[in-house]
C-alpha cells in the first residue's frame, strides 16, 4: 500500500477572511505565504478602495504574476551570465 503524503493544516487570515490551508509544506512556510498575499491585497486595495473582493483578488493575482515573471527573467539572466563566465 503506497504511503500517503502527510498534509499539514494551518489556519490563516487573508484580507479579513479565515482559510484553512493544507499542504505538504511546513506550517511556518504556509503562514508566511498567507501573510505575503494578505499584505499584497492590502497594498492593491490602498490604490483601489472601491474594488469588490473578487476584483481585488484578481488584481492582486496579476500583480503577483508580474512579480513572478520579473524574478524568473532576472534568474534566467543571472544563469546566462554565469554560463558565459564558466565558458571562458
If you had to describe this structure to a student in words, what would you say it looks like?
With 88 residues, this protein is of the alpha+beta class. The chain has one domain. It is 64% helix and 16% strand. Strands 1-2 form a two-stranded antiparallel sheet. The longest helix is centred in the last third of the chain and has 35 residues. The termini are far apart.
Biggest sheet details: 2 strands, antiparallel
Tell me the span between the first and last alpha carbons: 52 Å
Helical stretch tally: 2
Beta percentage is 15-25%
Residue stretches low in confidence (pLDDT < 50, at least 5 long) are none
- Strand/helix succession: EEHH
* Helix content estimate: 55-70%
Please state the structural category.
alpha+beta
Rounded mean pLDDT score: 93
The global form is: flat
Q: Supply Rg.
A: 18 Å
How many beta strands in the DSSP annotation?
A: 2
